[in-house]
């Protein structure tokens, strides 16, 4: 089992950040890597398309609006892992919000470190893209 974790502090209220990212179908609103998303099974499954048109299918496992988090599993994707489970969470932080993106997975045909670097990069790039939606954000 391998893990990846990234976080970023954003100078906006946690509620403002959650308003943008809290919908299970909201990835195209803030993540350039995912240009489209379609919900099925009553909103519990999302089918995403990456820029090269490959499908990524994910199932919502848990949703906590009050706690500003949701967890999901990958059902189908062009990634070298199985048993993928991830959580996206918005917490209170000094001066704004801290967004945390974490995942656990079992690598297939790659090392734990390679899989962790892959998802760490995806999370890091995604959180940086998210931060650009809040103009007061200063990279440091």
Record the SSE blueprint:
Elements: E1 2-10, H1 14-21, H2 27-30, E2 36-40, E3 45-49, E4 55-64, E5 69-76, E6 81-93, E7 96-107, H3 112-131
Antiparallel strand pairs: 1-7, 2-3, 3-4, 4-5, 5-6, 6-7
Can I get a quick summary?
With 140 residues, the chain is α+β, with helices and mostly antiparallel strands.
How would you explain this protein's 3D organization?
Helix content is 23%, strand content 44%. The chain has 140 residues and is of the alpha+beta class. The chain has one domain (2-131): Alpha-D-Glucose-1,6-Bisphosphate, Chain A, domain 4 (2-Layer Sandwich), CATH 3.30.530.20. The protein has a seven-stranded antiparallel β-sheet with strand order 1-7-6-5-4-3-2.
- State mean pLDDT (0 to 100 scale): 94
Helix count equals 3
Tell me the overall shape: globular
Regions with little confidence, pLDDT below 50 for 5+ residues: none
Care to count the β-strands?
A: 7
* Ends distance: 32 Å
Quick one: biggest sheet?
Answer: 7 strands, antiparallel
The fold-level CATH name is Alpha-D-Glucose-1,6-Bisphosphate, Chain A, domain 4
Widest beta sheet: strand line-up: 1-7-6-5-4-3-2
Please report which band the strand proportion falls in: under 5%, 5-15%, 15-25%, 25-35%, 35-45% or over 45%: 35-45%
CATH superfamily: START domain
Over the alpha carbons, how many angstroms does the gyration radius reach?
15 Å
Q: Helicity, in percent?
A: 10-25%
Pattern of helices and strands: EHHEEEEEEH
In total, the number of domains comes to 1
Which structural class fits the helix and strand makeup?
alpha+beta
- Tell me the CATH architecture: 2-Layer Sandwich
